[in-house]
Amino acid sequence: MAYYLKKTKLKGRTYLSIDESFYSHDKKGTAHKCYKSLGSVETLKANGLDDPITFYQKEVDELNKKRKDESVRKISDKSPLLYLGYFPLKSIMEKLKIKKYVDFFKLTTNFEFDLYEMLSSLTYARAVNPCSKHRTFHEVLPCLYNSYDYSYDQLLDGLSYIGGNYQKFIEIFTTLTGEVYGIDTSKTYFDCTNFYFEIDKEDDFRKKGPSKENRKDPIVGLGLLLDSNQIPIGMEIFPGNESEKPVLRDVINNLKKRNNITGRTIHVADKGLNCAQNIAFSKKSGDGYLFSKSVKGLSKKEKEWVLLENGYKIVKDKKGKESYRYKSCVDQFPYTVEHEGKKVTIQLTEKRLVTYNSTLAAKKRYEINKMVEKAKSLTLSQAKRDDYGESGKYMNFTDEKGGKAKVSINQKAIDKDLQLAGYNLIVTSETRMADSDIYSTYHNLWRIEESFKIMKSDLDAQPVFVQKESSIKGHFLICYLTVLLERIFQFKVLENKCGTSEIFSFMKDFKVTEAEGRYINTAMDSDFIKHLSENTGLPLRNYYLSKTQLKSILNYKL
Hints:
- This protein is an alpha+beta fold.
- It contains 19 helices and 18 strands.
- Among the domains are: 3-67, no CATH class; 360-420, no CATH class; 503-554, no CATH class.
- It has a nine-stranded mixed sheet with strand order 7-6-5-8-9-15-12-11-10, sandwiched between helices. Strands 4-16-17-18 form a four-stranded antiparallel sheet. It has a three-stranded antiparallel sheet with strand order 1-2-3.
- Strand 6 and strand 7 (232-239) form a beta hairpin.
């Protein structure tokens, strides 16, 4: 199998990419995938490349030259540059005793490589230098201290295997994390995001749907569940065109069944997952719920209560300035749910907490006015309805009878949104929970958003170039495990005294290079390194490191 330069003509332009042909076990024949997108010939020439085709053909030739012995080459050669920053993750993996449980998969596979070795090394590599699997194999794995004995083809086979069984691997890690470090499911935090794929056509798994980043590429959805201490305890991967709302029920159900969790849990999620069916599910399961709810969707009577200034209590910051204001009430509220194929209205007693933040209100009003200005300029240019995007909600496209009308500003919709800017409503089954606890519990959702940010930024989880559904799931499993181990390190080992960005910066920057029989520490000194060095007694701030000191770092027991 080999690399080749692919030329695609589209709308009068020629687009280049380096593609890779490979043997597909599924197709039982040759398949192709994109290795690197290069852009159009015209753009490349405009950027100063005289002959893009000849230039990139040389790169293809070089790649094929390097690949001649790839199928048999193992990761054995030691690089003069070594990553050491992953040692906390390695220590946690060993403390969890993951290997002996992963090794049981040997009973049902004929792999000629160590599955645990592949799983752990890909996780460490993701933490220190996230990149494509091809680059990971050739550039990152040789720079880890330990040698790993598997080929690139075996990596791809292993990735596909763990992806096809990703829920089992999550179950192993969740169970052992609970046994060693403890997990607290009295509150569980849940949210969804999606990841895009730079492909032209959808398939059975990568589907076009509502993107969090407003992209038109096919996407895959990912739901993440955290425990009360912000430790990941569950993940669900689903096609991009599926609704996120049932995913919450699926993940929580699976988690409880797989881990024999019988205690009462409060499900915490954002307004996008707030629906009558999820609330009914929480109640039916003997659990509680705490969701954000759109103020715009409230009844007239409820909106009047929200906007009534009476009853609000002011919370000030350390400087004595108003941070936010709030008020609450307990009452019965109707919910229409589906029961045995019929819609049934039920009454639920719940507490509702409304908050108002002047800073958020100003930001929201700015955004609204910006959209209105955009809508006005589009109207003057006689743009089509589809061109308005989100700003279209502030326009009238039809008359009162539903017929086509001259496009005009919907001032009523604008005034409504401006009036409600800065207000947020939290609904909960926990009627006895203090208002301050409700507020702080809901705002802990930022931790799950941070976990998504870690995946997308620190771990470079998108765009994803792997093709098979099982390989895609394997890729996200590696990202999930990296987040899990980092969270355990942050919250259970460091007791949340250090931030996520500090930890990942350390893991990426802490490297050594071999010179004259000893190792030179190239990492920049930092408060985090100082803190970790003082608490572990490890020579993390030394300029010179001996081989013995290196091993003491890699084998340190947290």
